[in-house]
Amino acid sequence: MNIIICGAGQVGSHAAEVLGAAGHDITVVDNNPARLRAIEETMDVATHAGNCAAADVLRRAGCETADLVVAATDSDEVNLLAASISKGVGAAKCIARVHHSAYFAQRGLNYQEHLKIDRLICPEFSTAVAIARTLRNPGALAMEDFARGTIEVQEFPVGQKAAAIGKSLMDLPLPERTRLAAITRAGNPFLPSSSTSIEPGDIVILVGNTSVFEDARKLFHDEKSGRKRIVIMGGPPMAVWLCRALRARSFAIRLFEVNPTRATELAEKLEWVTVLQADPTDRTVFDEEHVDQADAFVALLDDDEHNILGCAWAKSLGVKDAIAVVQRPNYLHLLSSVGIDKPFSPRRVAVKEIEHVLDDSPLRRMSSLAEGFIDVYRVRVGKKSEVIGKRLREVKLTPNWMIAALQHGEDTRVPTADDRIEAGDTLQVIGRHGEEGTLRKLFATG
Q: Could you tell me if residue 382 is inside a domain?
């Protein structure tokens, strides 16, 4: 494919490297000659100097015939304009990277639709959602992020005294918008039917809208757990996304920000979070705030080295789990050796989202819930599908398949039995491995 990347910063250069290595023809546009020279010296890609938001520059770079334009500069406004202009002059698909929540959350206006952009991506948001998922449950499973964090998938064992034990699925009082996707019993994974009963020791995979997920999860465990203590170092936008993703859950969050102005702003914005204007790696602060008793230490500063050292230091002093956000992927392989439990790279997240847009196939295997047994597929419903207009209760899916999530326009949710499927809807379908042909036929994806 012919791909133009606007911006030679961290995300743009990493995208050029990964997509170029995959065999795509890459052109990088930037108004900084030094950045372009650095790319030319390390990658086999074309470069073009100029303003990414200028139509004549984009035309000279070849966006009129581009299969994809990725606008990934440091400016949200430039990215939105560059993607919109590129679409207007002929690019097949356009992606804009944004940082500000007003654009990504479409507050006041659907910027994506208004500017005719195919996809808005926010690596900081997606990274925060992934961190929150890990903090809620280390065994959490990731579905494709088209749900923007509104749907959760978790795998966990059924407690010995859980309320669900002995009940069939038809009698289980699961909240609306939650589904039991799969069960592993005595090492054998399977998709349950409405008559399947829950047994002690079962390992279940639960899917649900985030707003009701914890209520559903309580049916399957019997432990009485206290609040999880989370310490966040740094107050960039990603910290705000993370705190919001953990709100109204069993978490006690302390956020440390050394800049007094930013600390005040965060305290006003995040009233459910304890914001401290201090450095948690200062030994006096660490001891006074009992940071060693935290269940997790999350480093979100824009400085990779500070994040790594802060996590390693906190871990050495007794913090249970240490999570570091790093921008440069060459550091990732070092982190486990210094005690960091989980690294997250927004650059990798961004490239993964770009790759999702590139793969426009109507049926795609996304991941496996039980390797060789149960897979997760993304399905776009074709115009000739026999299920169009039918309620889910009227569609014969079991015992091979279940629809875990339904996306209709901007609305993504776990469907109920009364939801209807329409042409063009995108589904997350969980089903038996090796049954793609049946899935393709049912939803007319061929």
A: yes
Model confidence pLDDT, tens digit, residues 13-68:
999 999 999 999 999 999 999 999 999 999 999 999 999 999 999 999 999 999 99
Per the structure block, which two tokens stand in for 165?
A: 């034990």
Which neighbouring-strand residues pair with 254? Answer: 231, 274
For residue 407, what are the CA distances in angstroms to 98, 108, 400?
22, 21, 21
Q: Which of 238, 276, 270 is nearest to 254 (CA)?
A: 276
Contact call for residues 352 and 335 (beta carbons, < 8 A): no
Does the residue 70 lie in any domain?
Answer: yes
Contacts of 86 (CB under 8 A, 6+ apart): 4, 6, 58, 63, 66, 69, 71, 94
Global confidence as pTM: 0.79
* Residue 15 CA to its chain's centroid (Å): 17
pLDDT per residue as tens digits for the range 251-304: 899 999 999 999 999 999 999 999 999 999 999 999 999 999 999 999 999 998
Phi, psi of 370 (to 5 degrees): -150, 100
For residue 226, pLDDT over 80 is answered with no
Cβ-contact 210, 188 below 8 angstroms: no
Pick from 268, 302, 234, 247: which is nearest to 129 by CA?
Answer: 247
E strand map for 129-186: 140-141, 151-157, 178-185
Q: What is residue 95's three-state secondary structure?
A: strand
- Domain-terminating residue out of 189, 217, 245: 217
DSSP string, 25-73: EEEEEES-HHHHHHHHHH-S-EEEES-TT-HHHHHHHTGGG-SEEEE-S
| Residue at which a domain ends, from 351, 368, 384 | 351
The residue with tokens 């590129």 is 86
| Token pair listed for 445 | 């994806």
Q: 207 is in which domain, residue-wise?
A: 126-217
Which residues touch 227 (CB under 8 Å, ≥6 apart)? 250, 251, 252
